[in-house]
Structure prediction request, 359 residues.
Amino acid sequence: MVKSPEEEHPQKAFGWAARDPSGTLSPFHFSRRENGDEDVTVKILYCGVCHSDLHSVKNEWGITRYPIVPGHEIVGIVIQLGNNVKKFKRGDRVGVGVLVGSCKTCETCQQDLENYCPSMIFTYNSTSQDGTRTYGGYSDIVVVDQRYVLRIPDNMPLDAGAPLLCAGITVYSPMKYYGMTEPGKHLGVAGLGGLGHVAVKLGKAFGLKVTVISTSPNKEDEAINKLGADCFLLSTNPEKVQAALGTMDYIIDTVSAIHSLGPLLAMLKLNGKLITVGLPDKPLELPIFPLVMGRKLIGGSDIGGIKETQEMLDFCAKHNITADIELIQMDYINTAMKRLSKSDVKYRFVIDVANSLSQ
Prediction:
């Protein structure tokens, strides 16, 4: 007989889950595994609300298994350690991002690229090595193998630091891998949301000239005067787009809605790079002529490995980079999801888990 989520494991846990494609979240009792020799048990204090959470609770990617507890931008404090855990101690400020497991032995794992492991275990909506389901950070505790636990720098606020565990590494990793860090070069950031606003901050920290590319004219003041972008390009203004043709060395495309890649490719210089990190739920059309005629490159990237994620956290702490957040209570989550679907947030919801999760 299949055990209920509440009876699968010894440790009782509590969170909010969606139970069907309506995506509506409500209180949910379940369980976590006992803390093993390699495990760290974390009391969750804050959890960011990622656009992936919205896709997942509504099964927009067609892979959701219900009930689902979302959340992979988790920060908290260590409350229990396994016998073999040496990296952490009780009370440490730690984070858990998008992945909580991998095979540890394949080529990608050996290169600290666990995020590309064929056996990667996601923080939620995935299957643990013991065959049970993983549940995310919209909950009170989480038990994670120490390899996948991150240290939050002492000078980084936990609430505003939480979104870096997904949004931060999602833009940091491709910027590093594709060489989009050379001071003085011109970076375009398409989309000014949870990912885009962090990309602007990272770009400026790397010494780049940064232009925000957006369909929303009301974001210009925020982009330049608050986030520090050098320029703002309204992509629905033909004259502005025409003036921007062939001016950018790199563009990082954070847009998760269906959109045209042609105009972005046209803004790139010779040898320019368009890197896409958004995840639209349908394929995008790729015009080939601009790639061939401009020797341009289009690439993608998916978060980062644990080593690189720690590097990103330390870099952000050094440069005082955090996400701009709206702190919410757990019982506001369904309203937050509706607002997120309309891009009505500047720029990341973060749930105050410890102070609002009541059974």
